[in-house]
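User: I'm curious whether this sequence folds into something compact or stays loose and floppy. Could you predict its structure so I can see for myself?
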Amino acid sequence: MTEKKMGPYRLETTIGSGGMGTVYRGIDERTGDQAAIKVLPSGMSHNEGLRERFQREIETLLQLKHPNIVRLFGFGEEDGELFYAMELVEGRSLAEVIVKTPIKSWRTVVRYALEIASGLRQAHDMGIVHRDIKPANILITRGDKVKILDFGIARLFGATGVTMAGGIVGTADYMAPEQAFGEGVTPKADLYSLGALMYAMLSRQPPFRGNTIAEILDKLRYSDPTPIGRLVDTIPNDLSQLIMQLLEKNPEHRVPTARALCRRLQAILDLPEDTDFEMNLADYSTQAPSAPVDEYQLKDGGDDFPTVDPTARKLAEAPTMQLTNPGTSDPAQSVADGDQTAAPKTIITQRRPKSDEPQTRFTTVAEQRQRKSEEESQREKGNAWINYLQIGGLLIALSVVIGIMFVAPKQPDADDVYRTIESSANEGNLGDVAEEMDSFLDRFPEDPRSEYIAQLREELNLRRQENRYRLAAAIGRVSQGMHPVEHLYLDAMKTNDFDPQAARDKLQGLLLVYGPADAQEGDIARCLVLAERRLKQLNTALAYQNKQQTASLRERLDYARRISGDKPDEARRIYVGVIQLLQNESWGTHLQEEARERLNVLQNR
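Assistant: Here's the prediction. I'll summarize afterward.
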C-alpha cells in the first residue's frame, strides 16, 4: 500500500475492516512502538451516525483502563479522517478460536467468562454498557488472556441524548430481549450477552438460531433456549444453572451485577478438579461456523478454516445490526425518551469547512490526563479554603451520621452499603460505587445518610459531564444535540486558554441569562453548576494576578518619582508605559490616573 500517516503513526498493513472503518498495524515514528490504528475514512465521515459511534468509542475508551479491555493510546484527525490508536493485540478473536480450535475444557470457558465479566464490571461501574458483546468482539491473546474491544455502540446508562437512526443497535444472536425490542437497556443486557457467549463457547452455537433475523427475534421473544446441559455433557450443574439464569428473558431474574457474576464464576472455578472432564456435544448435527470478518484480529499461521453450510455462519459473524424501534413509524426516529440508555451528548457531529480544519490533530491519553490533572491542581490551589470548609462540613456530617447510627435501630444492610460507598468516596473513586449509591437511595430513602449519598451521586454526575465537556474541547468539536447553554459554556472554556478575563465575562453573562442553577434541571443545571465553579476559580486566579501586577507597577511608579529630578526622560517613559498598559484594565484605574498626574507635572516643568 502507498505509505500513509495518521498523526505520528505510519500505517503498514491492514489488520481488518468493517462497517466502522478500517484497522491498520501502525508504527509510532517517534518511538518505534507498534499500535492498532482504527480509521474512519473521510468518505464515511459525512455519515453523522458513524461519526457519533466512532467518537463515542473514543470517549468510552478514555474512561476505561482495565487489563481485559483494549487500551487506548491516543486519538486525532488527519486530513478529515478521524482515527485513534489502541493496543495491538497479537492473537485471535474468540469467534476464530471457536471455529478452528473448539474449547474442550469447561474451566477455560469459565476463565474466559470471568475475565470478560471483570472488564464489564469496570465499564458498568463507570456507567457504560457495551451493548454488543459477541465472539468477534472478544480477542484471545497469545498468552491466552481476554481483551474486550469495539465500544462503538456503548452508551452511558441513565444519560440522555441522541441515538442512531433506527434506534436499536446490536447483534441478534447475542442481544438481550429488552435491547432487541427497544424496552430500555441496563448493564444486565451485557450479562445476557455474556451468558449467550458462554453458551456458544460450550455448544458451538448461539442460544437461538434461524435463517433470518425475524426468525431469531421471534424465538428470542417467545421461546426458551435448549438447556445447555442437554447439549454438552460433563459440565457442572452450577455452570449450567448460571448460564440459563443469565439467559432469562426478564432482566430481574438474571444475576444482578457483573460484580456478583465474578463471584459466581470464581466459585465455579474453585470446584474440585475431579469434576474436570473433556466436554462432549450431545448433538453433533451442529456444524462449526466459518471464520468471521472481524474489524480487528491478527491471525496466527495454520490451516484454513473448514468449509461449512452458509447458514451455520451466524455464530462467528453475528453482524452488528440496526433495527427499527417497535412503536416508531420513522426508522430514523430516536429511541423513546424513557429509554434508560440514550446516548450521551458527546463530542462531534458537525464538520468544519475544509479550509478551517487542521491538517493534523493528535492527542495522547497521557496528554489528556495530564491536562485534566493540571486543571484539577489549579482548581485545588485557587479554592483551598473552600476545600477546608467542605472537609469540615463532611466531618460534621459524618459525626452526625455516626451519632445517629448509635441511637437509631441497627440497619445491617444499609450500613454495609454505606461503608462501601464511604470507603470509595474517601479514596476519590466515586465511579466504583455508582450502582451502590443508586441502590442505597432506592432502598433506604428515609435513611438520614441518603442526603449525603445523593450529594455524592450528583457530584459523580457533575464529574462525568465535565469529562465530556473536556473531551469535546480537546477534540475541537461539539454535538448538535447539545443545548445552547452547553455551547456557550464550551465557548467560554476555549476563550479561557488565551483570554481569562473574557472567559470570566462570558461565564458571568451565561449565569445572568440562564441561572441560577437550581432553576434548571438535568444536564443544563449541571452545566450551570460547572459554570459557577469555574467562575469562582477564574475570579480567584485573576484577583491574585491583578494583585501581583499592581504591586509591580506601583514599584515602577515609585522608582519613576524618585528619578524624575535627575532622569526626567526615563521617568516620562515609565509614566507613558503605565498609561498604555492600563488603558482597558478597570482594576488599574487609580495607577493610570497617578501616572497621568505625574506626567503632567514633568511636562509643565
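Summary: Confidence is low (pLDDT under 50) at residues 158-169, 282-355. The first helix runs from residue 48 to 63.
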